[in-house]
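Progress note, sequence design subtask.
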């Protein structure tokens, strides 16, 4: 599985992109990396939001393996928006909703996810408009796709 974690607006907005087969042990590794990055900005004013794009990802383990995962949590995280295929995004939400005490939402496009967060957090909206944030994410994806 390939994954990337990028700050789009440090310390308020992180973009996570998952592609390929996703195994439970990899989800645990990604969650640990996210936790560490969020801990670095723990003293910042405002919340951290996650946009998790799963459009190119496939759940490769039995669901029970994901449900057994334990995650460290951080009270600074407010929204985790899962973007992508309805079936996979729904499974990701089902897995994480019982494990992570954050607000979770499924949305079909990155632009909708950015708009959703932009409308709810002045720390995000005061630094860039929706189009600028979407452009930054598109540039990251293009760079990663090489």
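Output:
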């Amino acid at each position: 599985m390939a994954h990337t974690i990028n700050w789009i607006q440090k310390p308020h907005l992180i973009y996570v992109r998952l592609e390929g087969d996703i195994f439970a042990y990899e989800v645990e590794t990604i969650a640990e990396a996210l936790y560490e990055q969020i801990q670095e900005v723990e003293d910042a004013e405002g919340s951290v939001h996650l946009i998790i794009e799963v459009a190119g990802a496939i759940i490769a383990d039995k669901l029970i393996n994901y449900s057994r995962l334990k995650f460290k949590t951080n009270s600074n995280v407010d929204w985790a928006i899962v973007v992508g295929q309805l079936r996979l995004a729904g499974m990701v939400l089902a897995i994480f909703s019982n494990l992570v005490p954050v607000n979770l939402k499924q949305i079909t496009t990155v632009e909708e996810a950015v708009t959703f967060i932009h409308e709810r957090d002045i720390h995000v909206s005061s630094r860039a408009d929706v189009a600028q944030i979407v452009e930054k994410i598109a540039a990251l994806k293009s760079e990663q796709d090489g």
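The chain has a mean pLDDT of 85. Work on this subtask will continue into the next period as scheduled.
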